Amino acid sequence: MEAVYSRIKELSEKYADYTAQNLSKLVQIKSLSTQEKEVQLELKRQMEEAGFDEVFIDGLGNVIGRIGNGEKILAIDGHMDTVDLGNMENWNFNPLGGEIRDGYVHGRGSVDQEGGPASFVTAGRILKELGFDRDLTIYFVGSVMEEDCDGLCWKYIVEEDKIRPDFVISTEPTNLNIYRGHRGRMEMHVHFYGISAHGSAPERGKNAIYMASRAALEIEKLNERLRYDEFLGKGSVTISEIISGSPSLCAVADYARIHLDRRLTWGETKESAVKEVEEVIKGMNAKVEVLNYSETAYTGLKYGMEKYYPTWKLEENHPLVQTGVKAFRGLFNKEPKVDKWTFSTNGIMTCGTYGIPTIGFGPGNEVLAHAPNEKVPVSDLVAASAFYAGFAYLV
């Protein structure tokens, strides 16, 4: 393998500018969730130019490139949608410029997370150039709608495209570390139902805002006593929105609703999280609702799922994690850091829902995800493209 690793590294460095230029082209195309059509066409063009065996766009709009025809299946995933630009005054450069300077590619999506797909396009080119002929099928997936609904794209790929990999690498940013899990999450509404009365005599009614406020203070306390996992950390819950309704501003509010962002550590489930909130509102005229996502993709297809994103992790001695460590060590002659993401990824579906072993390795630092002045080192892109190609030889 030493000779193979050496050649992969040589080619990844040779194609450094190619990878950076490809990423620059992707960054220049604004690609919010459900609006990814143009960036997907560009990614498809790049895969075809790199010589992939097959490239197609599925019904939800995912771009899927294939190399190889082996019995085992490896998928390398990166989502192509980005968050919006935010306050332009916070940017020191054009977020859609894709400028390459000072060893970085600059712009929205460079870290979160088109840098991963740009790197795996180069990995595919390297594998084709090396005449890769192992008993492996590799699907390179530029997925959609992740920012709106983690994992929805992979629900479609597994259930509708009927592609179920044996292993998955997520190319979300890991700062070139190997990640093996993260907390799950879910979104809930708690609805409170009061009785309206004239504002001049509030004692005649039952104020839903007061109910919601009492519940909010208890949820603040709940956050402090949630479960803890040594690797993933503590579960958390916070209220991110409160709204209310009444017949008029001169009336007692007869309705209120709070939105809960719940992060789930190991051992916490949808059922346990709902039960905790139900305990908080016991005795109130209120109910808990787990939300659903249903939106129309750029292809015109309406698709959705419940907004419950399961916790997942692999043990550090899991064969897939150790294969990643071996590839990293062989390519870069040092030990990788094995860690976890703070945020959520499509791993909630591949590993959390379907139980498909999943690891993460991606260019860029996650602290720049969703932040102004997002940029990724070209050296990270080079290392990532080498890793994806090297890993394929070990599976």
Write a compact overview of the structure shown:
With 395 residues, this protein is α+β, with helices and mostly antiparallel strands. The protein contains ten helices and 22 strands. The strands form seven sheets. It has a six-stranded mixed β-sheet, covered by helices on one side. Strands 10, 13, 14, 15 and 18 form a five-stranded antiparallel β-sheet that branches. A three-stranded antiparallel β-sheet has the order 4-5-22.
What does this protein structure show overall?
With 395 residues, the chain is α+β, with helices and mostly antiparallel strands. It is 31% helix and 25% strand. It contains 10 helices and 22 strands. Helix 2 packs antiparallel against helix 4 and helix 2 packs across helix 10. It is elongated. The relative contact order is 0.21. The mean pLDDT is 98.
